[in-house]
């Protein structure tokens, strides 16, 4: 995706937010549905796919690898080419803003005997790729990128791959998933060990497609064993709605006076639900209604009501993986609570779509909030409900979650908050403005 001119947007203080917020499909599950659908034999049907730019870029990539991917009658149809059947793309694969897209694709293609060149937008070109190409080298793939292991990068896949046993050096579902996807076309057992559990959508979906995959806890950590060269059977997948997108209307409702918002059908996979646990510890009025299971994932309707008495907490570092994308919006809630919120063990936030600790600290300080930070920690001093001054224009650095977090911040601040560019929101939550407006938010596009 090429990024057009910047589109500033301003959030003004809003009256109560009320009603239902139907957020889009889960981004992580959407990427995986397209990639695994393309590696199955026959037609996979996907309902509720996130049609954000990140996922559309992965859909285009799967076409370039030889799969048929199209939307008909509201359902996405992926006609797969089978494990080992991906074809050499004719052109560079442009993954836009998506770290998940590029890292999972690098894995899937790494055990095919052809070269692929990957690139992305300025944000993605600044992010580290060696964390994925290092384990892919163990299969026999070779990577040639810019200095620091950055895109654009060509990965020459292994024509005679060997299976791999790999312990991930950082808690990352992207690294784990890249190794598992590469392992699909390697003979024998590929094993990934993670010291801390990360989102397990790849494991669940691989099992659903019929792969032989085992997950066990051992003293070394969570051990995932995949038997290579399975025949993946096409599936019908209903993508649950994204808890990471639900976080925005939920947190907005907690801090805007008088609000009461229902966010139906949210995936509550325990490897993703850390934010909601933290909010409840802070004293948020957040309830799970009608908990149930859908398509192998736990799901519930979330109800969030204005919560004037939230208190700062210390977020346990071992919870970080289950809420890694939610720290930016948590810091906005923390600014509207009383006392200090402490977040440790979060060095990974520095290598997301932006350095998220730096982006949030800079913007919150400009809004009158005191923030302290170090390499892998930060803390936010709460100013209580209505205590954030706002009145700033903040830089979003092509990062959708930074943009949405500061727009929510503006809804509860004394003065409006402007983001310099709301364009990146379309990567994960293209209906954000419309949905928040429908609840009663006052968002004004300055473009
Ligand atoms: C994702 C994993 C996480 C997360 C990203 C989506 C995934 O990244 O931040 O938004 O779908 O596997 P890391 O694996 O780098 O932690």
Automatic annotation (TrEMBL):
Subcellular location: Cytoplasm
InterPro entries in the record: Enolpyruvate_Tfrase_dom, Enolpyruvate_Tfrase_sf, EPSP_synthase, EPSP_synthase_CS, RNA3'P_cycl/enolpyr_Trfase_a/b
GO term, biological process aspect, one: amino acid biosynthetic process
Entry binding sites for 3-phosphoshikimate: 27-28, 32, 172, 174, 325, 352
Primary subcellular site in the record, as a coarse category: cytoplasm
GO MF annotations in UniProt: 3-phosphoshikimate 1-carboxyvinyltransferase activity
EC identifiers of the protein: 2.5.1.19
Keyword Secreted in annotation: no
Signal peptide extent: none
Catalysed transformations (reactions): 3-phosphoshikimate + phosphoenolpyruvate = 5-O-(1-carboxyvinyl)-3-phosphoshikimate + phosphate
Residue ranges annotated for the Enolpyruvate transferase domain, each copy included: 14-434
Residues noted as binding phosphoenolpyruvate in the record, renumbered to the chain: 27, 99, 127, 174, 356, 401
Keyword Transferase in record: yes
Broad enzyme group: transferase
Pathways involved: Metabolic intermediate biosynthesis; chorismate biosynthesis; chorismate from D-erythrose 4-phosphate and phosphoenolpyruvate: step 6/7
Chain residue ranges for the region called Disordered: 1-24
Catalytic residue list: 325
Protein keywords: Amino-acid biosynthesis, Aromatic amino acid biosynthesis, Cytoplasm, Transferase
GO cellular component, as recorded: cytoplasm
Family named by the database record: Belongs to the EPSP synthase family.
HAMAP family from the UniProt entry: EPSP_synth
Xref: NCBIfam families: aroA
Subunit structure: Monomer.
Physiological role: Catalyzes the transfer of the enolpyruvyl moiety of phosphoenolpyruvate (PEP) to the 5-hydroxyl of shikimate-3-phosphate (S3P) to produce enolpyruvyl shikimate-3-phosphate and inorganic phosphate.
UniProt protein name: 3-phosphoshikimate 1-carboxyvinyltransferase
Organism: Jannaschia aquimarina
Phylogenetic classification of the source organism: Bacteria, Pseudomonadati, Pseudomonadota, Alphaproteobacteria, Rhodobacterales
